[in-house]
Amino acid sequence: MCEYNLVEILLRLQEAMEAEPRDDVEPMRVDRWLAASVIQKAIRRGHTEYALGAAAALWHHDRQKLYTRLAVIAAEDVGAGNPKLVADVLTAVSSSV
């Protein structure tokens, strides 16, 4: 059994973002397609601030696409390294859409 409920965590994160936008994360001024691409590339390269900025932009443009991109990143970049995490993310994403 998982120690945490990833769906609940995502929902709490969503509520927190809607209630109290973070002042320290500036959404990138890009379209949703570039934001989705930047998220994955930034995560692969360990550029947290770029990933957060792109995620914030995508959050404002198209939340559905953000959830989908998180699933893609889990499958492509985590994959066999942590199958449980991939399953948790896919479950959370499918519950959020």
Explain what you see.
- By secondary structure, the chain is mostly helical.
- The chain is built from five helices and no strands.
- Helix 1 (6-19) crosses helix 5 (83-96), helix 2 (32-45) runs parallel beside helix 4 (63-78) and helix 3 (48-61) runs antiparallel to helix 4.
- The longest helix is centred in the last third of the chain and has 16 residues, at 63-78.
- It is globular.
- The chain starts with 5 loop residues before the first helix and ends with a helix.
Secondary structure: elements and pairs:
Blueprint: H1 6-19, H2 32-45, H3 48-61, H4 63-78, H5 83-96
Helix pairs in contact: 1-5, 2-3, 2-4, 3-4, 4-5
Which features would summarize this protein structure in a list?
97 residues, mainly alpha
Q: What gyration radius follows from the Cα positions, in whole Å?
A: 13 Å
Ends distance:
24 Å
Q: Helical stretch count?
A: 5
The main pleated sheet reads as: none
**Poorly predicted ranges:** none
What fraction strand? Answer: under 5%
- Overall average residue pLDDT: 78
**Which secondary-structure class do the elements indicate?**
mainly alpha
Q: How many individual β-strands?
A: 0
Overall, the morphology is: globular
Order of helices and strands: HHHHH
Helix content: over 70%
Question: Short description, anyone?
Answer:
The protein has 97 residues and is mainly α. The chain contains five helices and no strands.
